[in-house]
Amino acid sequence: MINEIPKTDDVAVISISNELSRMAISTITNLDVGCLFVHGKNDPFISLPNNYQILQLPEQHHEIIFEQSGHFPMLEESSKFNRLLIDFLTLETGKNVRELSLKEEWKRIVR
Asked: Exposed, middle or buried by CB within 10 Å (0-12, 13-18, 19+), for 80?
């Protein structure tokens, strides 16, 4: 599937990017549930938020950056992404989403 990324139509990418940029940040910041933003550091389409934007996030929102990923961290660093997703989805009630962090990949030891 990752081989298909370069084949993505530029017009489609620009269109969805424009649509997402129109989404009011107030809608996101007014959510009263935990919200996790995941970014690839090397994303050619979506810029990383600046420090000011990150500081404006409500307490129940958190951002995690995948250092080795571009636009598709779920494909490019799938083990780390899947572990983070499981941690987010199973976060106990009352726990703060900001307690989440990237963890080292699980590695099976073969003897």
From this structure: buried
Considering only CA atoms, which of 48, 53, 64, 50 is closest in space to residue 28? Answer: 53
Mean pLDDT for the chain overall: 82
The number of residues in the chain equals 111
Query: Is the per-residue pLDDT at 4 higher than 70?
Result: no
User: Which run of H or E residues covers position 85?
Assistant: helix 78-89
Number of domains in the chain: 1
In a domain, 86, yes or no: yes
Q: Which helix (H) or strand (E) holds 27?
A: helix 25-29
Domain membership of residue 23 (yes or no) is: yes
In degrees, rounded to 5, the angle at the alpha carbon of residue 44 between the alpha carbons of residues 35 and 27 is 30
3-state helix vs strand vs coil in the chain, percent to 5: 45, 10, 45
Domain membership of residue 109 (yes or no) is no
Domain that holds residue 33: 2-99
pLDDT for the residue numbered 90: 94
